[in-house]
Amino acid sequence: MKRYRKRALHPNAPLLHPDHPRPVTRRDFLRQGFISGAGMVMGASIFSLFADPRAAYAALSGDLTTLAGSIGCSIGGGGGVGKTPFICFDLAGGANIAGSNVLVGRNSQMDFLSTAGYSKLGLPGDQIPGVAETTPTATSNGDHTDTTLGLAFHSDSAFLRGILEKAGPALGNVNGAVIPARSDNDTGNNPHNPMYGIARAGGIGDVVTLIGSRNSDSGGNSMAPAMLIDPEIRPTKVDRPSDVTGMVDTSNLTTILGPDDVVPVMESIVRISDQKLGLVNTGLGLSGVINNGRDLVVKDLVRCGYLNAADIADRFAGVDVDPANDTDIVGTTGIFSDAEFTGSDRGEFQKTASVMKMVVDRHAGAGTIAMGGFDYHTGDRSTGELRDLRAGRCIGACLAYAAIRNQPLMIYVFSDGSLASNGMIDNSTDGRGKGVWTGDNSSTAASFFLVYNPGTPPQIISDGLVTTLQRQQIGWFRSDGSVDTASSPAANNVNLLVNTLLLNYMALNGDRAGFETLFPGHGLGNTASVDNLVVFEPLA
Description:
Layout: E1 3-4, H1 26-31, E2 40-42, H2 62-70, E3 86-91, H3 115-120, E4 145-149, E5 151-154, H4 158-166, E6 174-180, H5 195-200, E7 208-212, E8 235-237, H6 241-246, H7 253-257, H8 259-277, E9 285-286, E10 289-290, H9 292-316, H10 338-342, H11 346-360, E11 364-371, H12 382-404, E12 409-415, E13 419-426, E14 434-440, E15 446-452, H13 468-471, H14 494-508, H15 515-518, H16 527-531
Parallel strand pairs: 1-13, 3-11, 3-12, 7-11
Antiparallel strand pairs: 2-7, 2-8, 4-5, 6-15, 9-10, 12-15, 13-14
């Protein structure tokens, strides 16, 4: 077999392919790594805000809470209770997920493919699952498989190495599933993003509904299914700690008045404004005739704006909500070191920290973290390994933070298409003796999800109809290393891939019975077929 050596690209270096056109759109720049993925939050209004869940919320004065109730104005952060926090990683460009990272097989993860099939997925014959390892890692099963996360990974998976590096406190209480499913290469037109569906299923935070990674309708690189989009909760950009703190900024009021005086002043402004509004008429109407209904709507919107401003002051004056100042996240006792948070990878780590804090602390119901540069068929293996390793660290950080906060968490990882190897080997240090990625290949694609549950790992459904190993792989690969597009409803339809993910999210929350009602026309088959696509029992 031909051996290949090539210097690896830095994880932040852009990808230049002679067989690809020059990047034109923002999506092109993202998948080829010319820009990093931004962060997004979805919110119902510009006054959305959040607070540390460990702090007790003070209530506004009784007359103002009564006013808020009478006009239907939501204050006080009433959401974010009950549903499992949700984060998805949108790896733009067509990352390798199946085989070299998450194991895939013919009937289950452990029903191994042929040697040629694994070669297509980037694994040489001496590293395929089932072959004894010369020097197994501490967590390996000794045969190039690793089930530390419940879901089986290749023991030298870059995703796995990154996750294990960061996820420490979550380990032992994680499990997951892989979904073999093809999608088109290098395009944002795959409707991969499930966040609007998560919101419909009840994933709503006490501040904003959703968080994501780009200033797009989905909040990420890939689109959201058109039938799920709700314009009222379109994403708001978040890709750094300052975006988070800006949502609850009380400007100079705290400095000028002091935290104890800010709220009474803001409450007084609400009362004065309410009285003034009673003395004016907006003049909204037709042909000079006042329309009292429209007049009241406008006034109530103004009143709600002032109430929300007072609520911001009430909940956040003097409160530090900066992820960079959270010692559980950054510093000597944090998930990220100070050097990581300020070094060359700071953009991805700061974005991850900002999104995970909002979601896990239940200030947002769900979020997308878009990461660019995963179109890494650069004629070597090391470039992809380094980018996958960094993505794994970000995934592991989210799991660790959930464990620290004692909150459940579902993480979903997907990419637009995938790639394949022609069998050449990269023996460089970072290439790790694996197959060189030589081109895009949508037939090798897959997505996967992980679930963390405090106290006990998620329990796989055991009903005798489908084995537990089969449940952890929804669909299957052919022996030659390609998705069998008839193996599940999701295997050849990205919309149904999203619906399969939403089904499992609802089942985790004990809402399986409501899936057909909430998502009519879901396309996953009859009740028995749908039940066979559910992986886990509801979380305790």
